[in-house]
Specification:
alpha+beta; 34% strand; 2 helices; single chain; 9 strands; Multidrug-efflux Transporter 1 Regulator Bmrr, Chain A
Length: 174
């Protein structure tokens, strides 16, 4: 279990190698960065970390949360998100001073989640994504959106101890 707060969810089904989760709605700070998969993370992280560490309308420092997510949203275009603490809502969350950072409410929904350890590079992510997509097809579960990388461990964590996941939105009637 992580020592950091994360979005609230319940596991609604388990299958070989993955689970289906229902996430409640939550707030995120997000930014979009252009560039190659393996080279844009530090730019996005600096922007989002700046916001939660005081570069906001209240100069308020907020706690880190997990996961940090990344989703490919176009050719060499990546959306990164930091989950906001659940104590905040739209009316009391400070506003970013960096105009490349926005606050968004993520709607509740169902996601297939497959954990993996090790490196978080594009090759590893794509391999785990492909395996999860194959399993969802095998189990006749409809995919309704693009995969995202979810990172739960900091950069100083040894690769074999890192907790990462691939999350894919799915239609679930369970």
């Amino acid at each position: 279990m992580s020592r950091y707060e994360q979005p609230e969810y319940s596991v609604v089904a388990r299958a070989d190698g993955y689970e289906i989760r229902h996430y409640r709605s939550y707030l995120v700070a997000e930014t979009t960065v252009d560039g190659e998969f393996d080279s844009v993370g530090s730019v996005a992280f600096r922007r989002l970390a700046g916001f939660i560490f005081g570069r906001n309308s209240d100069q308020r420092k907020m706690n880190m949360t997990v996961p940090v997510t990344r989703q490919v949203v176009g050719e060499d275009r990546h959306r990164y998100r930091f989950v906001m603490e659940s104590a905040f809502n739209e009316s009391d969350l400070p506003q970013p001073l960096d105009d490349t950072v926005t606050i968004v409410r993520v709607s509740d929904g169902y996601y297939a989640a497959r954990p993996y350890r090790g490196n978080r590079n594009e090759r590893r992510f794509r391999r785990v994504e492909a395996a999860l997509l194959d399993d969802l097809e095998r189990d006749d579960i409809e995919v309704v959106g693009a995969a995202q990388s979810a990172v739960y461990s900091g950069p100083m964590t040894p690769p074999m101890l890192r907790h990462n996941e691939v999350l894919i939105p799915v239609a679930w009637t369970g």
